[in-house]
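Re: beginner question about structure tokens

> Can someone show what the tokenized structure looks like for a real chain? I only ever see the sequence side.

Sure, here's an example I had lying around. Input first:
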Amino acid sequence: MTGSLIAPLIPPTVPSGRSGHPARRPGAQGPGARKLPLATVASPPARTATTLYRLSAVDCNGYVLNRAILTALTWPAGTRLSARMARSLLVLTADQAGAFAIGNQGDLWLPITVRRACGLVTGDRVLLAADPPLGRLVLVPPAELDRMLSRSYGEEWGGEPR
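And the corresponding structure tokens:
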């Protein structure tokens, strides 16, 4: 058999630094290393709202429990609340003539009619948004969060909201 042999593939040698170690790659850490440019990121706007947010699950009997929210609102057990619907949001405020009340365990009971109006089912996690200076609690169901985020993403990234 006659023919040419295939030359062996040998990687090129790496130039050494002064210490005998291989030279640093670009972007490596340490003195004398070249630094890669970093992207400039704008600082997010400072938060000015005093709203406290928590997630809480709706149990099988329609109860929602979150003591941190009720403490921030200074709503002890027995506090009467009035409720109104704004889209699918439930807005609660302290009102002595209110139809709702904070239970002995610091829970809030949502009747089935209210849960249906908000599109809530057992196990759903609702966003609780407490605004202590205004004495207001807003319950945001998952479907409304989906709509809000979809709309926000569409505006921010130029896409179409769902």
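Each token stands for a local structural state, so reading them left to right follows the chain. The radius of gyration is 30 Å.
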